[in-house]
Amino acid sequence: MNAVMTEACLTFRDLTLGYNSHPAVHHLNGSVKTGSLTAVVGANGSGKSTLMKGIVGVLKPMAGSCLNTRNARVAYLPQQSELDRSFPARVIDLVSLGLWPRRGLLGRTTKEDREEMAKALMAVGLEGFEGRPIDTLSGGQLQRALFARVLVQDAELILLDEPFNAVDAKTIGDLIQLIKRWHGERRTVMVVAHDLELVREHFPETLLMARRPVAWGETKETLRAENLLRARRFDEAWHEDAPWCEPDHGHEHLNGHSHAQPHDHAGHHHHEHGEVHERPDHESGPRAA
Amino acid sequence: MYDFLIAPFVEYGFMQRALAGSLMLSLGACPVGVFLMLRRMSLTGDAMAHAILPGAAVGFLFFGLQIVPMTIGGLIAGVIVAMGAGAVSRFTVQKEDASMAAFYLISLALGVLMVSMRGSSVDLMHVLFGTVLALNNDALALIAAISIITLVTLGIFWRAIVAECLDPLFLRSVSRLGTPVHFIFLGLVVLNLVGGFQALGTLLSVGLMMLPAAAARFWTARVEPMCALAILIGFGSCIAGLLMSYHASLPSGPAIILSAGVVYFVSTVFGTRGVFNTRLRRHRHRTA
Fold it and tell me: What parts of the sequence cross the membrane (chain B) (predicted)?
């Protein structure tokens, strides 16, 4: 096993994820290093959230694979909209879901668990909020509670999908500190974010998505003007008449993201190599757009 | 007072059986109703109640008015509709309300067709409205078994059911139980409706599931007390309904459900989270 492989926490091999035969993440290759802190940026519809769902396994790949190389425990924070805030639960009920990986379906909540949940709530600045119904929390308080749940999960790989949306500056600052703490603890963290200034300031590595990786590596390099321009040209629409994607049409195969040289694929899959073969509709392969 | 409240249950065996049957039904059906309500699936219970009709009708067609074949038939029809509608919504673009509507309407039409092929409107009335006052030992044993299965299953899967309601994507990220739990839950819904239809009929069995749950929502903001309160409201409704039925010679099923209906309306207005407390009363407020 080479050095890159032993360090990789996640390895993407030709990973294609999507919906209704249209790819949202198209032929992603590369790896995420153990202990790295990566921002995932890109326009709406560029495949960021889809990639998170693919990594965590709630969305099955249409093609290729996503390997959790070291079988790391994963904590996943979906966007807030996925949560039913009208459900009659207290903050502590929400945070205690984070005990699932350890306690599973039937394990009893122990005294240590309760102490850990109290510590997690304190770490996110929500001490005293244990009994608050979740439908009375502000957006920022709910996000803090969800971060407490991630803390309790004690995962090696942490995936956060747009955690800074509709959150005030102070809360963002506090959440960033937590993310940095996880980074310091050698946990692997991937965060979907939109604020490029924030990314430049706090995230050492960045993956710029436009259905394919436009650039991936050191943040300063990745967020260069020409890359951002290429990403901005990304066409997020699905084209019903897009040609079927054939496996031999020159997808890059990278050993590590630092070597990523994505060709000019920002959302447009050129089929310049030979004819495009029409496939019948029942085939499940992805379309090119 | 004794004559009014206690004597009917002491002196008549059929009232004791009716009481035992309906209390056991409340024990299982009410907490299931709470989760149906919290998952915004209240009308799914109603659809499922209609869906079990053809199964019961097949049992009736072949064996006459007997509890075991009709129950098994109802169970099979209910499971087919629940699993079919659940699968269509999980694996296609269609949402569960639409797939459930499609499946239960087909099922209901089949059921009415079958009952009309043989049997009188009296038989149809029996299947549709039940007779809690004529519960036999088989029916009581069945209802007891269903209550125990329901409570044990809820106990085992409690954490997963709560997680599936509150944050389904999170559950799917830490466990593969998300989809199985959904189907197990639908199975419990079917089981309790089938248990209820002998006593209350296919149409009203869902009433004992949903009305106490809907009423309990107005009194508490936590799931566990909500389930306990729903069961208590179910108990109260069953006792009140049976007494009403006994003293005023009313059909027992509707009397039980209407009693629950009264509790629902009272809770809607006077519950701690009801209209009076949240909208009409002037509240003092704290400084922070």
Answer: 18-38, 47-65, 71-89, 101-119, 139-162, 174-194, 200-219, 226-249, 255-276
